[in-house]
Amino acid sequence: xxxxTAAAHDDHDEDFTQGDAGASATYPQxxxxxxxxxxxMLKNRPCKIMEMSTSKTGKHGHAxxxxxxxxxxxxxxxxxxxxxxHNMSVPNVKRIEYSLIDVDxxxxxxxxxxxxxxxxxxxxxxxxxxxEIRTKFEAGDALKVTVLxxxxxxAIMSYKPDQESRK
Length: 167
Prior knowledge:
Blueprint: H1 2-10, E1 26-30, E2 39-42, E3 45-54, E4 64-71, E5 77-83, E6 87-91, E7 94-103, E8 108-112, E9 118-123, H2 128-138, E10 143-150, E11 153-161
Antiparallel strand pairs: 1-6, 2-3, 3-4, 4-5, 7-8, 7-10, 8-9, 10-11
């Protein structure tokens, strides 16, 4: 009989070897707990909250929260209204600083992180920010760029002079 239960137990062995670190792309947060300058998913896009206003509870008892957010990658404006007791999805946004090593003709940048790992799969941002980074880099300035990651998308958000490499 003992052999039989061991065999039945073996059928239920779970295999969790594959998968990522377990961090999901978004997590739920109650609407009333969201704050200005925080992040939220509006119309399935990761947005930074620019404005928030709460209406009074109405006849049916739910206060509504009106949010205006700007897409962190495209700069497009989105609005949404939800009851304050409902959950909204909040994107897991990660900021990473890289040292700028090179900018190629197509606008791709070579970046190095603190662990000396390099990557060259990110393009310079469109518009003014991209032009500023290219101009300063070509003038010989050492720069650090900040890359935002959310929902599998990445983009350079800002830059600053790199003090460490000019010593």
